[in-house]
Amino acid sequence: MSRAAVRVLRLGLRPYGEALRAQERCVAAARAARAGTGSSSSTGSGSSTGSSSSEAGPAAAEGLVLSEPAAPVYAWGLRGAPAAAAAARLRARGAALAAARRGGLLTFHGPGQLLAFPVLDLRRRRLPLRAYVAALERAALGLCRRLGLAAARALPPPYTGVWLGDCKLCAIGVHCGNYITSHGLALNCCTDLTWFEHIVPCGLEGKGVTSLSRELGRHVAVADVLEPFLDSFQEVFDCTLVFAEEPAL
User: Fold this and answer.
1) Where is the BPL/LPL catalytic domain (predicted)?
2) What is the dihedral of CA 109, 114, 120, 125, to 10 degrees?
3) What backbone phi and psi angles, to 5 degrees, belong to 108?
């Protein structure tokens, strides 16, 4: 049996809102494909970690949106927005605020951070939601192992994500509607961590945040981790990656 194809949309440095809108287009494509109304083709070029679109086949309706936020933004999930006074203080520091349809509380997104939003069909994959979150953690851990961070680990809920000691390196917050996933993970590469000092990240008191750059003692840009992350994602989710400019609707 051939491996499932996942279309990778690499946005690069983009506003957070643009990444969310690209994700929603991928979700619409995945739902249309399940209903038998979506296109099975995709456009893009090949890569050392994937295949060309002509090799993708119908399963390419699944997607993976990768981006780096172009500006600082505090985003919250379905469990509640910050109070008006707190929101005003955050805006005064020059950050935007945004609501996201995902689990989890208030966190920060900004330059130097890799956002990865997988759009996968969990019913087709026969993958329960909690197992899917664990798979995202394994994908991030696989990247850490490739970079030499053997101490990185996943912890039981509510400490979802990837940790080094008491500091979170990678946050995870997902949404699943009609078995189609959205949102995903935020990995600190060379993020300015001082932005996290103005909130309680993910509502976890007494815990810190860290980055690949801090842990490795060198500058690690988002572009530096894309290939190893995609290698790890491909391994964990047993898929073939197809590179595209925009999702086909």
Assistant:
1) 58-241
2) -120
3) -115, 140
Please measure the distance between the N-terminal and C-terminal CA atoms of the chain and give it in whole angstroms. Answer: 26
* Residue 50 scores a pLDDT above 80: no
| Structural domains of the chain in order of their starting residue, each with its CATH number | 4-244 (3.30.930.10)
Map tokens 């060198």 to a residue: 218
Q: Give the separation between CA 202 and CA 78, rounded to whole angstroms.
A: 12
> What are the Cα distances from residue 194, in Å, to 89, 191, 201?
15, 9, 12
139 burial class (0-12, 13-18, 19+ CB within 10 angstroms)? buried
pLDDT digits (tens, 9 = 90+) for 162-189: 999 999 999 999 999 999 999 999 999 9
Please give the positions annotated as active site. Answer: 202
Contact residues for 178 (Cβ-Cβ < 8 A; gap 6+)? 31
User: In whole numbers, what is the pLDDT of the chain averaged over residues?
Assistant: 86
Say what the pTM is. 0.86
Name residue 5's amino acid: A
- Position 24, amino acid: E
DSSP class per residue in 77-136: -TT-PPPHHHHHHHHHTT-EEEE-SSSS--EEE-TTEEEEEEE-BHHHHT--HHHHHHHH
> What is the pLDDT confidence band of residue 33, given thresholds at 50, 70 and 90?
confident
Cβ proximity of 154 and 79 under 8 Å: no
Number of neighbours of residue 190 by Cβ within 10 angstroms: 20
How many residues make up the chain in this entry?
Answer: 249
